[in-house]
Design goal:
109 residues, mainly alpha, two-stranded antiparallel ribbon, elongated, DUF485
Length: 109
C-alpha cells in the first residue's frame, strides 16, 4: 500500500467514524441555525432601509436615528456570534475533535 493509499484509507475511516459524524452534527446544529438567524437579521435591516424609510429615519435622540442603531447592532451581533461560537466550540467541538485527532495520530505513527 502506498503512502497515498494509506492516507486515503485513514480519511475514509475517520469519515465513517461515529464520533466524527457526531462532531459534524454538533457543528451543523449550531452553524446552520445561527447563519440563518444572522442572514434574516441582516436582510431585515436591508429591507427596512429600502421600504420603511420613515421608520428607519425616525430620530431616537439628537441626530441618532433607527437606521444608525440597527447598523451598529449589525456589528455587535457579528462580534457576539463570533464570541458565542468560540464558547460553543471550546465546550462541544474541540474536546471531541481532540479525541479523534489523538486516535488518528496513534494509528498513523
Amino acid at each position: 500500500m502506498t503512502a497515498r493509499q494509506h492516507d486515503a484509507s485513514v480519511y475514509e475511516e475517520i469519515q465513517a467514524n461515529e464520533r466524527f459524524q457526531e462532531l459534524k452534527r454538533r457543528f451543523r446544529n449550531w452553524a446552520f441555525p445561527m447563519t440563518a438567524a444572522f442572514l434574516a437579521w441582516y436582510l431585515l435591516y436591508v429591507v427596512l432601509s429600502g421600504w420603511a424609510r420613515g421608520f428607519m429615519g425616525a430620530k431616537v435622540f439628537g441626530n441618532i436615528n433607527v437606521a444608525l442603531i440597527f447598523g451598529l447592532l449589525q456589528f455587535v451581533s457579528t462580534f457576539w456570534i463570533a464570541w458565542a461560537y468560540a464558547r460553543y466550540a471550546e465546550k462541544k467541538l474541540d474536546p471531541l475533535a481532540d479525541e479523534i485527532r489523538h486516535e488518528v495520530e496513534g494509528k498513523t505513527e
